[in-house]
UniProtKB/TrEMBL annotation:
SUPFAM superfamilies: Periplasmic binding protein-like I
All residue ranges annotated as the Periplasmic binding protein domain in the record: 49-336
Annotated organism of origin: Actinotalea soli
GO cellular component, one term: outer membrane-bounded periplasmic space
Coiled coil stretches, renumbered: none
Domain of life the protein comes from: Bacteria
GO MF annotation terms: carbohydrate binding
Signal sequence, start to end: 1-20
Keywords: Signal
Name by which UniProt lists this protein: Sugar-binding protein
Gene3D superfamilies per the UniProt record, alphabetical: 3.40.50.2300
Length: 387
């Protein structure tokens, strides 16, 4: 393997140290109400924090909302938690209402990172600090802080897992026995989500050298972000695109070996298309193409355990929620939150100070170590595929 290739993928194998246990409950089983809005108990002395989450159609965002709610209430704050069901006007109205009601701080996971300028202007006018949660809010000087994972590194890990599945690399980063050429297709996230381009850029930093030397080929020719992007991260849209690719680029008997997918929901749609339109078998061992993923959603964790999906990226939402709470406490104490990155996240108006967390690649062989032993999911949930 060339030095350039090894350097690009070595970073993808960095593992986060020390996962905080969560009392044995799965991420989707916090025991907290996940309705459209929730309010805290009697901790009025801490003030009120508005939390705007994008949707309840993804178990990941339900888990995030519940974790932030529990952390803030445990720290003594009242909480107004709202889910917007992936509707931009709904999220805008929810944030407007929070500002009108006089919340002391906002934590926002934006649906569209460019659609909240007016709301952030109003928050600034009311001296309400704004923390962007996992998704950067763009085109506004009034984003005070950003808590997220190292999203470029997440993309590196996604691409690394694909290469491991193809046998080009081993899990330890060393060169594998497989030489290719391998036919792959590329999927990207929603173009209105700032993270999607970071995932893509990280993945392509790993894959492009292999595409240039012929180890990887993309028969569809669709190698640009705009061609691969899936609006709103919709599983059904990913399934239709995969079906179209199979019909247009693989109908003549060309075999597909792997698919870069940046999210587990997309991965499941891709796998459905592969097993349907593509006529591929049920498992990778039997010849199903290798498919990557992200978020360690329980349905995909079961698919990995069953040998159907190859890997996912574990972003521990408990860690992200904890960091959001710590950052909120700093603001409300009149202090600046600790940032570990002050260069990477330019929202078009300013560099937003950020705190980046690490993520892990989940393969079949380390599900227990990363997800069960840490209390994120239970063995029973992994076996059933249900939270």
């Amino acid at each position: 393997m060339s030095t350039k290739k090894f350097a690009a993928v070595a970073a993808g194998l960095t593992l986060a140290m020390g996962l905080a246990a969560c009392g044995g409950e799965g991420a989707g089983d916090t025991g907290t109400d996940t309705g459209g809005g929730s309010e805290g108990g009697d901790a009025v002395e801490g003030g009120t924090i508005g939390v705007a989450m994008p949707t309840q159609t993804s178990e990941r965002w339900i888990a995030d909302g519940n974790a932030v709610l529990a952390g803030l209430e445990g720290a003594g704050y009242d909480v107004d938690l709202q889910f917007a069901n992936d509707d931009i006007p709904t999220q805008s109205q929810q944030i407007d209402q929070m500002i009108t009601q006089g919340v002391d701080l906002l934590i926002i996971a934006a649906i569209d990172g460019t659609a909240l300028t007016g709301q952030l202007d109003a928050a600034a006018a009311a001296n309400i600090p704004v923390i962007a949660y996992d998704r950067l809010i763009n085109d506004s000087e009034n984003v005070d802080f950003y808590v997220t994972f190292d999203n470029f590194e997440v993309g590196v890990q996604q691409a690394t897992s694909l290469l491991v599945g193809l046998g080009v690399l081993n899990e330890d980063g060393s060169e594998g026995d497989a030489e290719g050429p391998f036919n792959v297709e590329l999927f990207a996230g929603s173009p209105d989500d700032n993270n999607a381009t970071f995932f893509w850029d990280g993945a392509m930093s790993v894959l492009e050298p292999y595409m240039e030397d012929g180890t990887l080929e993309v028969p569809s020719g669709q190698t640009e972000f705009e061609q691969a992007a899936i609006l709103r991260w919709q599983q059904e849209t990913a399934q239709r695109r995969m079906e179209d690719l199979l019909t247009s680029a693989y109908s003549g008997g060309t075999e597909l070996h792997g698919v870069l997918s940046p999210y587990d929901g997309l991965s499941r749609g891709i796998i459905t298309a592969l097993q349907g339109t593509g006529g591929y078998p049920a498992t990778i061992e039997e010849g199903l193409p290798v498919v990557s993923g992200q978020d360690a959603e329980i349905a995909s964790v079961k698919l990995i355990a069953d040998g159907t999906q190859f890997a996912t990226i574990f972003k521990d939402t408990r860690k992200l929620a904890d960091q959001a709470v710590v950052s909120a406490q700093s603001f409300l104490a009149g202090e600046e939150p600790e940032a570990n990155d002050t260069e990477s996240y330019d929202n078009g108006v300013k560099i937003v100070p950020s705190y980046l967390l690490e993520s892990d690649i989940v393969y079949e062989g380390n599900i227990t170590e990363l997800l069960v032993d840490s209390g994120y999911w239970t063995e029973e949930q992994v076996e059933s595929g249900q939270a």
